[in-house]
Amino acid sequence: NNTMRKDYTANPLPVTSDLEGISLKSTQEHQKLYEGYVKKTNEVQAKLETVDRSAANGVYSEYGEMKRQETFAVNGMKLHEIYFRLLGGDGEVGGALRTLIERDFGSVEAWKEDFTATGISARGWAVLAYDTSDNRLHNYAMDAQNVGAVWGAVPLVPMDVYEHAYFMDHGVNRKAYIEAFIRQIDWSVVRELAERQGVVA
Ligand code: FE
After folding, report:
1. Could you state, in chain order, the average pLDDT of each consecutive group of 10 residues for the chain (201 residues)?
2. 9 CA to middle of ligand 1, Å?
3. How far is the CA of 164 from the centre of ligand 1 (A)?
4. Distance 175 CA to ligand 1 centre (A)
5. Beta sheet of 153-160, edge-to-edge order
């Protein structure tokens, strides 16, 4: 067994009230899915230590299937942690992040238009990310938590567009949810993330 392994702990839900277009009930249910990803990350990583590596196989093997689900659970954990913290702001972006958005998208409005289209297109997540390969911001679309992630890109604004994120409040009207989300991004949280990752000074 790998004694270096460390369990993850789920963060408490930072949202405590209804948001405009995103109800507390929906967010509380969503939190349960997040807690599930944390639990499954710990479970799959612990179990991987006991699975027969010599039987690993790309078509089917216990080890291979678990390695696939590991990335789904880990990304689910990471992206939701940022997602919940971003909710509940005033949507106003200023300072160095605004400058970066204007440089790489032309304007904040142009970014929003593209981010909305990315969110409508994606089957899992739309992510505003800073790619350390070209030092630019990109809106990336992920069809699942482990499909579409770009290596070396720092997620700054992950927007969950799985149906569970909006069906309770909006039914099939994903665009109404996306607009509500964008209007309530807490950019001070994004700023703190970007500073910690060295994206902005
Ligand atoms: Fe989700």
Report:
1. 81 97 98 98 95 96 96 97 97 97 98 98 98 97 95 97 98 98 98 96 90
2. 17
3. 6
4. 16
5. 136-142, 125-131, 153-160
